């Protein structure tokens, strides 16, 4: 319950901040859609409760900005397991790799599809390949960093020895 209360407080504070800073929701929308994306990102990050993932989601979904690939816990885990981002990369470093490698127009789809993939296949504790090497559609392309089917062990890629 506390969590819900806290979230609603943050939402109310954010709405008040928008009105104070921009005068109206419409003016805020224009700012998010038209200003330099880095400036929007920096401004949003000053708001209590807004972290990099939320700021990037606002840029992508509300601002319609292509080339922004928000990194949540699924995205952070999966691209390091696959070997596409360095095993010890933090969220920002994974974002840099993805925004460099993924065509700008595909970043939004990539973000949502990766989250779904993380729920359906490459889960945090029990990735599909752990018991069946053919159970994951990405099996042929994946380095399985931190995933050890032989022992059934799964660790964060940053702690992997392979
Ligand atoms: S092969 Fe395993 S570790 Fe690699 S993406 Fe699929 S489920 Fe994840």
Automatic annotation (TrEMBL):
Coiled coil: none annotated. It is an enzyme of class 4 (lyase). Its cofactor is [4Fe-4S] cluster. Pfam families: EndIII_4Fe-2S, HhH-GPD. GO terms for biological process: base-excision repair, AP site formation. The keyword Cell division does not apply. It comes from the Archaea. GO terms for molecular function: 4 iron, 4 sulfur cluster binding; class I DNA-(apurinic or apyrimidinic site) endonuclease activity; DNA N-glycosylase activity; metal ion binding. Keywords: 4Fe-4S, DNA damage, Endonuclease, Glycosidase, Hydrolase, Iron, Iron-sulfur, Lyase, Metal-binding, Nuclease. Residues 1-120 form the HhH-GPD domain. Its EC number is 4.2.99.18. CDD domains: ENDO3c. This is Endonuclease III. It comes from Natrarchaeobaculum sulfurireducens. The lineage of its organism: Archaea, Methanobacteriati, Methanobacteriota, Stenosarchaea group, Halobacteria.
